[in-house]
Amino acid sequence: MMSADSADGGHTWTKPRTLPSMNNPNARFQVVRLKSGRLLFVTHGSPSASGRDGQERDKLTAYLSDDDGATWLGGLELYHGNASYPDCCLGPDGTIYVSHDHDRGGAAEIWLHRFTEADVLARRIVSPRGRLNMLVSRGMASAVNRKLDRRHGTR
């Protein structure tokens, strides 16, 4: 991830620079400003290690920052396996929802995670409504799922 700054409303920009506190493998990530003012960063692995040493698209993890991304707090692992394209939305009560895909060429699944800032800081679900790993959708056109359906007698 890189950043550039503008002091004139976007007419000119500084030279782009890497953000070492927000490393990420070659994969989509999500950064959202929460109602509390904190930043939420959903990435693969830890921000300091991601993108290095062959980091994979696994260990999708949520972090919070009180200082606009200079440092990251917590670390709630949302999904341990292969995950891509995290997307985030915020509920009116401050609940955080993150969805992502899993194994596009195989299982073709969409997963959802529901949690709060307190869960991220605790690095585990502590809120009453928090829940991880909810399967939302499974692509029935995938060869993997057609085989599963035949075994279970569904079409």
| Overall 3D form | globular
> Which strand-content bin applies to the residues?
35-45%
Number of strands: 10
Mean pLDDT: 83
Number of helices: 2
Helix content: 10-25%
Order of helices and strands: EEEEEEEEEHEH
Class by alpha and beta content: mainly beta
Major sheet: size, sense and barrel closure?
4 strands, antiparallel
Radius of gyration from CA coordinates: 18 Å
Low-confidence stretches: none
Keywords:
single chain; 155 residues; mainly beta; four-stranded antiparallel β-sheet; 10 strands; globular
Topology:
Elements: E1 2-3, E2 17-18, E3 30-33, E4 39-44, E5 60-65, E6 73-79, E7 84-90, E8 96-102, E9 109-115, H1 117-122, E10 131-138, H2 143-152
Antiparallel strand pairs: 1-2, 3-4, 4-5, 5-6, 7-8, 8-9, 9-10
Task: Give your account of this protein's structure.
The radius of gyration is 18 Å and the shape is globular. The protein is mainly beta and 155 residues long. It has a four-stranded antiparallel sheet with strand order 3-4-5-6. A four-stranded antiparallel sheet has the order 7-8-9-10. It has helices at residues 117-122, 143-152, and strands at residues 2-3, 17-18, 30-33, 39-44, 60-65, 73-79, 84-90, 96-102, 109-115, 131-138. The longest helix has 10 residues, at 143-152. It contains two helices and ten strands. The mean pLDDT is 83.
